Amino acid sequence: MPVENIDGIEVTEPAAPAPAVLEADPVKEDPAAPTELTAPMFDAKADTKTPRTITLRVLNKVTARAEELKAQPGEVLKFGRLEITAGQCYRSAPNSLPDAVALLSIHETLPQQKRPKLLFHGWMYATTPSLTALEHPIYDVTMVDCALRQPAPADAAENPKKTVKKAP
């Protein structure tokens, strides 16, 4: 391949770089202040008395039936042979990456056994379903959200009891 005459090629100068726009003054920043990456995930001073609703997604792989189930802490949900006991749930701190977490206990009731078999007990995170979801030969359970809910009427607060919800 012949070499071209490089003297005949016009060369344009690249544009001058735009001046950097600083969003914050590093001299005035507090190095001890938490950032999005260094802030605690869940606020230790969070209000735990505010009523919350835990949203779970449950899939029966055999029937291809999927449902979103909602529960308040302390409730027991039934889906097929699963009994899901909802514990506490939290949302991440406002200055942290968004996430929701719930403490769950999941048991499977088999006809030939007297006691339900424990399948999962621990914290389930909404943003990492591949790490914390329940994967079972028949069922998959993943955490979707933990949301604040409206306070219950005054008479319901006086008579708290463990409730059981059944999926249709």
What does this structure look like?
The chain is 5% helix and 38% strand. It has helices spanning 129-132, 154-158; strands at residues 52-60, 65-71, 76-79, 82-91, 100-108, 117-125, 134-135, 139-148, 164-166. By secondary structure, it is mostly beta strands. The termini are far apart. It has a domain at 52-151.
Summary, kept brief:
This protein has 168 residues and is mainly beta. It is built from two helices and nine strands; from the N terminus they run E-E-E-E-E-E-H-E-E-H-E.
| Main beta-sheet annotation | 5 strands, mixed
- State the assembly state of the protein chains: single chain
User: What is the ordering of alpha helices and beta strands?
Assistant: EEEEEEHEEHE
* Principal-axis shape: elongated
Let me know the average pLDDT.
79
- Count, helices: 2
Q: Which strand-content bin applies to the residues?
A: 35-45%
The counted number of beta strands is 9
Instruction: Please give the order of strands in the largest beta sheet.
Output: 6-5-4-3-9
Helicity range: under 10%
Q: Give the N-terminus to C-terminus distance in angstroms.
A: 76 Å
Sheet/helix structural class: mainly beta
Q: Ranges with pLDDT <50 over ≥5 residues? A: none
Radius of gyration: 27 Å
